[in-house]
Amino acid sequence: MFSTPKSLQRRTGPFGVKRLEYLKQLLNEYEHTSTNNENKLQLLANFANFSYDPINYIYLRQLNIIDLFLDCLQMHTDDDFVHYALAGLCNMSADKINNQLILEKNPTILICLIKYLFSNRFDIVINSMLTLMFLCDYNEQIKNELRQRIEIRQCLEKYSQSKDIRLSNMAKLFLQDYFS
């Protein structure tokens, strides 16, 4: 459920922790939890959850959380880190400003997302697919690049025949909207 400034005020009260301050605390904890991957993973999951609500976008941009998500994709091979980083990017890439920032901050993100499109893990595949779709929505060059990659079309066609209806429908939608 999306928040409004008024609903946040009502829930936290006049003396409650402000959203930006709370996110700063989480980021500080993430940055200073150097050896405990379980804690880092939980904090990354929190950021992915906060990235679901557009009211948080401005705060997440101020704190460079997009960079955090992108760094996790490049530095971690652990599927759980990849999952939460992709979930966060997916959530944020639905917004035009965030979409542009993702492409500016990591011009090679397309290569990374394509790699994860072929993952064996369902949630990684879906988040990769959705992020690619959102990037195509705001960037014709990305859409054209994907259309030229035969392995992408073949992968999506394979997924469209999946017994998992969610994967099948998502792949069919991707093919219909971006490859036809």
From TrEMBL:
User: Which stretches are annotated as coiled coil?
Assistant: none
* Highest taxon of the lineage: Eukaryota
Could you tell me what this protein is called?
A: Armadillo repeat-containing protein 7
